[in-house]
Amino acid sequence: MGVGTVDTVMQTTQNDIFLRACRRQAVPRTPLWFMRQAGRYLPEYRAVRSQHDFLTMVRTPELAARVTVQPVEILGVDAAILFSDIMVVPEAMGMILHMVEGKGPVLPEPIRTRAHVEALPHPDPESALGYVMGAIRQTRGALDGRVPLIGFSGAPWTLAAYMVEGHGSKTFRRAKAMVYGEAALAHALLGRVADAVGDYLLAQAAAGAQALQIFDTWGGLLPAPEFAEFSLAYIARVVSRLREANVPVIVFCKDCAHSLEAIADTGCDVIGIDWGTDLAEARRRVGARCALQGNLDPAVLFAPPEVAARHSVDVLERFGRGEGHIFNLGHGILPETPVASVRAMIAAVADESPRYHD
Amino acid sequence: MGVGTVDTVMQTTQNDIFLRACRRQAVPRTPLWFMRQAGRYLPEYRAVRSQHDFLTMVRTPELAARVTVQPVEILGVDAAILFSDIMVVPEAMGMILHMVEGKGPVLPEPIRTRAHVEALPHPDPESALGYVMGAIRQTRGALDGRVPLIGFSGAPWTLAAYMVEGHGSKTFRRAKAMVYGEAALAHALLGRVADAVGDYLLAQAAAGAQALQIFDTWGGLLPAPEFAEFSLAYIARVVSRLREANVPVIVFCKDCAHSLEAIADTGCDVIGIDWGTDLAEARRRVGARCALQGNLDPAVLFAPPEVAARHSVDVLERFGRGEGHIFNLGHGILPETPVASVRAMIAAVADESPRYHD
Asked: How many CB pairs under 8 A join A and B?
């Protein structure tokens, strides 16, 4: 695996249909990648993971690059997405982070006070998150222009929710109590997180990420008015800063179908559509303002391969003819997903999507 | 506490504003009850719970009646809802049920085969679920006509999801794989569960339940087309059978705002609206076809009491003037909720709601 240099950033991407679809340009078939594609459903990923713990993989550019490239080489997806974790930003902001098997991220010293918010350092991405930039450079070298590389971050609200709650939760009641009961404190925290996220994503683009996705996994925990005020306003601030990077920006807010038009208003290039939202209706509502990415239900991949193939074509059909569709799952692939169904999905989209394009 | 008899069923209900609002009749103020109101947030409930395990309370009419009446006497809500659990129906259908602290229901022998589906007995409610009917009769006696008593069941899909998965899950991937990959088997199971639910709810009404709520906690796990086919079709079958009971029927499908019109099509009297859905928009879409119940975010109750009061008035304002609103939370109250905020919510609705009625 080569070490990336400025030269690799300048290289021509051989398969650029993902980047073209992000900009609603003409493509001969619908590009496909999927969330968590560098993950545990792949035996080749599990082989690496069995030798290293999760955070070691995240923090070691060579390992992160190796699993990032796996789905490109094994499955033939049209974009790579960096293997990393959204929780690296809270950690770079000084919070202690543990990954607990079966439980996810745990922050043993969650934020509950203004003093804690004001003490959060503003992380310099190249020093505090240099391992991510290293992973991007190494991945670009390893990809050698075959497909584009997507960088990402958690959305400010999603990160702040973990930082206040201290761990994953069905309800995030502490984080939401701050929104409802201590709005000024929530805004102070979100402003700092948004500044960190903006710098982090700009640094990813400078290191070689060719598109950037903002994941608002927990946007759906807020009713629409609070989503607008405490989540989308900060996503919009980040998207606005990313204009200077001149790479496509994808915004994926889970369970936020109520706000598709407002998400388009952020100026993002692509809106990620979750599996609970009808893609045809999303297209009607968003129109020509953004490309749409999605939205096969990840649970479909537990059905037999022919069912996965049929539902994948249904997704193409729901979007319909024309440009601006990137095929994806409607949420991350689940760890136990059988690879045979993943291959059936990919083959169906490759075979059937050309008739949706001129 | 008296033992209920047929006489208690015939008695006049002193505070019937809940029942009148279910039928969109005029009321002087907006009635209020809330999901899981007989629950762990109340110290008086925890006192009973500390002496008995959860399923013992469910199965002992005297205990179930005692905690059912608590929120009426302590907080002054406008309806009681029977303390019970949706998992009693799968258990009555022959499945082994454990309640695991911090994990919820566990069914150690989940359904995976047609043979298992076909071997499920059809439970006779008065024998297999006689303890529920006993609890209803005792509660009616204890309430002595002060407020109406609501009975309930899980929706067929929600129950089937647990029966196939074997436990709660963020994704219910096995249950969904059956929907996607073995639709005929899923329909066979859902048909049997719907028949059991219909008989169960009719028996509750015969025992004295004065309204019936169907909880589809996991309806939102299905995209709209699958929700229509595998959940709502069976809810509609149950609602249709309940017409003969001549009591209001409430349908609450969590995270199913995409299908409000279709839920109204079931012929239910009331639609439960979750906190993620805008109540004003729900009213516009449903119109005069059904009353609406909801929808304060339960997380609001973790903010200070004055915030809980303000957001409660916001809910009244979102529904607006006129009849057909039952105030409720948009999902069950959370166990650690401070009672002071609950009282602030109740006081705000009592004080402010008269101006929304003629």
From this structure: 82
Option in A224, A255, A299 nearest B177 (CB): A299
Query: How close, in Å, is residue B245 to chain A by CA atoms?
Result: 35
Of A180, A302, A336, the CB nearest to B303: A180
Cα B349 from chain centre: 21
Q: What is the distance between the alpha carbons of residues B136 and B204, in angstroms, rounded to a whole number? A: 7
Phi/psi class of residue B36: alpha, beta or left (left: φ > 0; alpha: ψ in -120 to 50)? Answer: left
B40 is catalytic: yes
Catalytic positions of A are 36, 40, 49, 85, 162
Q: Which of A128, A158, A327, A325 lies closest to A238 in space, CA to CA?
A: A158
Among B41, B137, B140, B162, which one carries the catalytic annotation?
B162
Q: Is the dihedral of CA B156, B157, B161, B162 positive or negative?
A: negative
Which of B297, B329, B341 to mutate to probe the A interface, most A CBs <10 Å? B297
Please provide residue B97's backbone torsions phi and psi, each rounded to the nearest 5 degrees: -130, 130
pLDDT, averaged per 10 consecutive residues of chain A (358 residues), comes to: 44 91 98 98 98 97 98 98 98 97 93 97 97 98 98 98 97 97 98 98 98 98 98 98 97 97 98 98 98 98 98 98 98 98 98 97
Per-residue model confidence as pLDDT tens digits over A304-349: 999 999 999 999 999 999 999 999 999 999 999 999 999 999 999 9
Q: Which helix (H) or strand (E) holds B196?
A: helix B183-207
- Tell me the C-alpha distance between B31 and A19, whole Å: 54
What amino acid is encoded at B219 in this protein? G
DSSP letter for B328, please.
E
Report helix angle A305-319 to B173-181, nearest 10.
80
Compute the distance between CA of residue A166 and CA of residue B67 in angstroms, rounded to an integer: 33
Find the helix or strand (DSSP H, E) in which A343 lies. Answer: helix A339-352
* Cβ contact, residue pair A223, B278, below 8 Å: yes
Q: How far apart are CA B284 and CA B273, in angstroms?
A: 13
Phi, psi of B3 (to 5 degrees): -90, 130
What are chain B's domains?
6-356 (3.20.20.210)
Name the nearest CA neighbour of A292 among A268, A259, A262, A258. Answer: A268
Question: Which residues, listed in sequence order, are joined to residue A153 by a DSSP beta bridge?
Answer: A214
Give the gap in angstroms from C-alpha A277 to the nearest C-alpha of chain B: 7
Integer CA distances (angstroms), B239 to A131, A314, B232, in order:
58, 31, 10
Distance CA(B199)–CA(B216), nearest Å, equals: 17
* Whether A193 contacts A156, CB under 8 Å: yes
State the pTM of this model. 0.95
Cα–Cα distance for residue pair B218/A55, rounded to 1 Å: 33
Q: Can you tell me the distance from the alpha carbon of B344 to that of B346, in angstroms, rounded to the nearest whole number?
A: 5
Write out pLDDT tens, residues B16-67. 999 999 999 999 999 999 999 999 999 999 999 999 999 999 999 999 999 9
Which residue out of B16, B78, B85, B199 is catalytically annotated? B85
For residue A296, give the DSSP letter: E
C-alpha pair distances (Å), B20 with each of A27, A349, A351:
59, 54, 58
Strands (E) in A201-343, as ranges, are 211-216, 249-253, 270-272, 291-296, 325-329
CA A5 to chain centroid, in Å, comes to 24
Q: For residues A308 and A342, give the distance between their C-alpha atoms in angstroms, rounded to a whole number.
A: 8
State the pLDDT confidence band at B291, using cuts at 50, 70 and 90: very high
Measure the CA–CA gap between B283 and B273, rounded to whole angstroms.
10
